[in-house]
Amino acid sequence: MSTSTRRGPGLRRLTTALSATALLVAALTGAGTAVQAGAHPGRTGAGTTLSAADTPTGFASVNALGRNGTTGGAGGPTVTVTTAAELEDYAGRRGPYVIRVAGRIAIDDMITVVADKSILGVGTTAEITGGGLQLGSTTRPGNNVIIRNIRFTGASDDSVSVTNKAHHVWIDHNDFSGGYDGLLDIKRESDFVTVSWNRFHHHSKTLLLGHSDNHTADIGKLRVTYHHNFFDGTDQRHPRVRFAEPVHVLNNYYRNNALYGVASTENAGVLVEGNYFENVAHPVHVGYDKSGPGRVVERNNRYVNSGTPQTAGTVVEPRTYYAYTVDDPGSVPAIVTAGAGVGKIGL
């Protein structure tokens, strides 16, 4: 693995090290206790709940493109929405808003989310079904957006689409299933994104990173951290990457993925680190389908009843952008199943 001499615009601690699985489970199930995504459980005491002010780790935390990390709607009004019309209204308003989603909201298309928004599910029952969220349009950017603690089901297209040069996005502690196309696609020159502690299930095309083999404008963009996600029986694209570098795939749990785990194509640079692959015949592909080969470095992963990963070339180290620690991959199944998905944080 080579380390680039290039320096990222800032460093933040990616505090994902967990001292003991039992401590995490106790913290998650204890009365009134919630654990911050990517944080050591000992840092969150009993009776503490998370708020919209919590900050991400990984690429969404980096100081770049005029933003020092991702804050979403912090500092703006807090509103609670229960209908598609209300959600669409506030998501499209100018300026920061903290938007609390209460209960099940059925939509029939993509709702556009513009800059400086936090969209947070209330409790354990927040759901967006039938459609999805698109971060930004060609004229209204979707920068500095946070989406947490929401169940996404049955989308007619993508469940969440990060697109049109959106940057500084944090997608955390959600549950995705049963969409028509991608569950979570990041494309069209978007950048500085963290996808953390989500559960993906009952779906095939899970995570696309990069619009197409011909969209070379993505070169130098699409820097994404995927950490502590649970790919629970989904078929493929965890993620499927074009052009991006570096992409950091860290401490995720892959289980029963029928086609493959990660695919790096079109000269993308992907670091696959500290993950646990269980019953995955093809954990890592270099190139896929009609797409040309990418580059992959794999280190410190665990393969259980799984195939041998493909690797090629060298990749820019994520440490040139942020500091981090790696959980023991053998503990990843317990850590991730205990902590990923909705209802694990107090919002």
From TrEMBL:
Q: Where is the signal peptide?
A: 1-39
This chain's protein is named Pectate trisaccharide-lyase
Question: GO biological process annotations for this chain's record?
Answer: polysaccharide catabolic process
Taxonomic classification: Bacteria, Bacillati, Actinomycetota, Actinomycetes, Streptosporangiales
Residue ranges occupied by any Pectate lyase domain in the UniProt entry: 74-283
Q: Key word Flavoprotein present in the record?
A: no
UniProt keyword annotation of Signal present: yes
UniProt subcellular location = Secreted
The similarity annotation says: Belongs to the polysaccharide lyase 1 family.
Q: Which source organism?
A: Planobispora rosea
The primary gene name is pelA_2
